[in-house]
Amino acid sequence: MRRSERIAIMTKILIQNPRMLFSLNYFAELFDAAKSTISEDLSLIKNTFQTFNEGHILTLAGAAGGVKYIPFLTREKILEDLEELAHKLQEPDRVLPGGYLYMTDIIFNPIFANKIGEIFATVFSNLEPDYLVTIETKGIPLALATAKAFNVPLVIIRDNSKVTEGSSVSINYVSGSTRRIQTMALARRSLQPGAKVLLIDDFMKAGGTAQGMQALMAEFKAEVLGLGILVGTVAPQEKLVDNYLALLELEALDEKEKNILIRPGEWIKKGDFTC
Amino acid sequence: MRRSERIAIMTKILIQNPRMLFSLNYFAELFDAAKSTISEDLSLIKNTFQTFNEGHILTLAGAAGGVKYIPFLTREKILEDLEELAHKLQEPDRVLPGGYLYMTDIIFNPIFANKIGEIFATVFSNLEPDYLVTIETKGIPLALATAKAFNVPLVIIRDNSKVTEGSSVSINYVSGSTRRIQTMALARRSLQPGAKVLLIDDFMKAGGTAQGMQALMAEFKAEVLGLGILVGTVAPQEKLVDNYLALLELEALDEKEKNILIRPGEWIKKGDFTC
């Protein structure tokens, strides 16, 4: 078997399973090759990915060692993707009655959802969450893509208790978009107590929903490591939660003139933009 | 640049973008290589994937030609994955009060969701949907993974009309799980009239929800190409919809004894199991 054949299969397996650790033995047995050969193959993949900015290949030495693929985008790539997203989100026919912004087609598009997931995985790459957490419905594709990049389960907070999920903990909160008291609920069995979680949602205005998510996490004694939002509004400047990261910022939305102004968040300009 | 380096990058790009067509020129420019060289590289990837049952690499000749990766699993691999899923779903503590089956942790796990998406993409590989359609909430991860494999947008039917999605079409239906009249709604702008759609959901008993989805698709003049379900119940034998494919069949669930019996659907035994 030729090196380039092994490289094709190893690349596929690593890419399809981000952050999953594969032992060198696994590949050695798969290809009936020496571990030293596999090791050389992996060095080649690692260096090539580095040259082309296609993410990191991490090799861990020792008995519990192995290799894994860490999705990681460059600042240039993130900026390019966010500017493309901002451009699309500024299309005038996205303005809905009531001054809402139509984003569903983008969020539910697997290509955009995966791009956004990889961006979240990059900016939060220093965190080691046990779970990704979101609230139904529009955050789900983004959180799922991020969970895949982190190789952790996704937990979805529901808008009320469901018979198909058993006993649950629920809280009330005031949502910014409907300006009404709403409920969010999470099945007791869906989260281990003391878990470390990363919260993801699609949109944040005042932060009522995000605050609710944090309160619900407290009920599960979960430690919130971070909060990632696709689009955050600039106003109100004072939010109900601190320490969130909005990939994009909505500066203005004029319902009558159908003008929308969205730009990448200021964090992208920081020297080290990872959280 | 060495062949194995090009192979690593080409494999990554193709795998991350299932069913997306890349021209040979795209790769030739990326690597500053001759098209004949790229063509040889792609043959090698194609043959290697074939040998290892890692899906199809399809090359299309001509001016509009290029190459794409088609996820495709073997019967053996599908059976292995479904038996693993069935085994997990039969854990006694999944029986919930009311005789419901707890599946959320599996459906929301990105690894399982992607496996299920690739299985749907394989069994429905002869179809060419314009959209994947599901209904919130539990079908979403499965439908998103399937949409990714088909390289088409996902459309999510909501449980009522949302201010953030503009004008919508809604219908009433009777859900099997709650035995109540419920509403499902879909934003007008989310689906082009005359579109071809593939429906995906996580669970089906009598088929009330599936029937509702079909009725809603009729409102959009959409052509339903197929209906894929993760778990279908054996009883009642008579469903409200025809021509569905359930990856797994729930034969029995004894709430008191906490016995669950789930097995891969009979379709897997057919000579050609694709739809």
Write the layout of secondary structure elements.
The structure is a homodimer of 275-residue chains.
Chain A: H1 3-16, H2 24-31, H3 35-51, E1 56-60, E2 66-70, H4 75-89, E3 95-96, E4 100-101, H5 104-107, H6 110-123, E5 131-135, H7 140-150, E6 154-157, E7 168-174, E8 181-187, E9 196-204, H8 208-219, E10 223-233, E11 244-254, E12 259-264
Parallel strand pairs in A: 5-6, 5-9, 9-10, 10-11
Antiparallel strand pairs in A: 1-2, 3-4, 7-8, 11-12
How do you describe this structure in short?
Chain A has 2 domains: 3-70, Arc Repressor Mutant, subunit A (Orthogonal Bundle), CATH 1.10.10; 75-269, Rossmann fold (3-Layer(aba) Sandwich), CATH 3.40.50. Helices cover 35% and strands 27% of the residues of chain A.
Mean pLDDT of chain A: 96
Distance between the termini of chain A: 43 Å
And the CATH topology of the largest domain in chain A?
Answer: Rossmann fold
CATH architectural name of the largest domain in chain A? 3-Layer(aba) Sandwich
By CATH reckoning, the class of the largest domain in chain A would read: Alpha Beta
Number of domains of chain A: 2
> Looking at the chains present, what oligomeric state does this protein adopt?
homodimer
Main sheet properties of chain A: 6 strands, mixed
Protein chains sharing the most extensive interface: A-B, 59 and 59 residues
C-alpha Rg of chain A (nearest Å): 21 Å
Number of strands of chain A: 12
Query: Strand percentage of chain A, roughly?
Result: 25-35%
* Biggest sheet, spatial arrangement of strands of chain A: 6-5-9-10-11-12
* Helicity of chain A, as a percent range: 25-40%
Shape of chain A: globular
Note the run of SSEs of chain A as H and E: HHHEEHEEHHEHEEEEHEEE
Summing up helix and strand content along with how strands pair, one would put the structural category of chain A as alpha/beta
